[in-house]
Amino acid sequence: MKKRNSRNSIVHKAILLTILAVGMIPLFYFATIEIQLAQAYTESDVSIMDDTSTVNRHVRNVAFGVGEKLSFDINYGFINAGTATMEVVRLIEYEERPCYQVVTRALSNRFFSSFYKVDDRVESVIDAAGLYSWRFEKKLREGSYSSDRVHTIDHDRGLAFYQSDTIEVPPFIQDALSVLYYVRTQALEVGQSVMVDNFTDGKHYPLEVRVLGKESVSVDAGKFDCIVVEPLLRSVGVFRHEGRLKVWLTDDRLKLPVLMKSKVLVGSISAELTDYELGDIEVF
Question: I need a surface site. Which of 1, 8, 98, 154 has the fewest CB within 10 A?
Fold first, then answer.
């Protein structure tokens, strides 16, 4: 009985890992190593409008806008475990800056809810001009477990505020959701990498997004020519021990995430795009 319960627990965690994955999959429960964020940017992608202010970075964005909504099926092997959505809800003003409010929602289906119900909501406030994180909130409801967590970033002072802690962070740091939207705006070349600093659960984590190659894939939303990327941790982390994650982004200016796969100890998990609505691209 103990072995069966232990295995069920592993399966539940594996399913949850991918249900939570849809924000480029919490890639990000990792140990800290300092890196220079400048590695992530090239002159063609980023310009600094005012060297006296750290918040005035500008990133060219022709990938997404308000109104974009992506819907996914979450599958454990051949079994559907639930659904998830990612939506650029609206444009708001935050810290006197125009920002995107981006929300993801993950729900287990009726079958899995009968023994492990998941209802998670994650929100990110992303600077519309510079595509970095200002605020991140997640409300997790997973079985008998619940957690509400929020962090905010003061980019002028280079500080993150999480619970009662104040942590120094590098410029233009991302959160577990905003990082996907930033990567979607970057020029992705096979064999190269995008370097990003990330802040999650009170810690700063370095992340390398490696561009592996190009493939065509078919999902419920259609057939797409894609760029395949793999997020890599610079230190010990959940995927280093329990599996690897690959993400298929459309090989066009939108770079829509259409497929995500993770091989874990108990099998494979995938998130597949089932439907999408494109947003309005605005220039800031």
Answer: 1
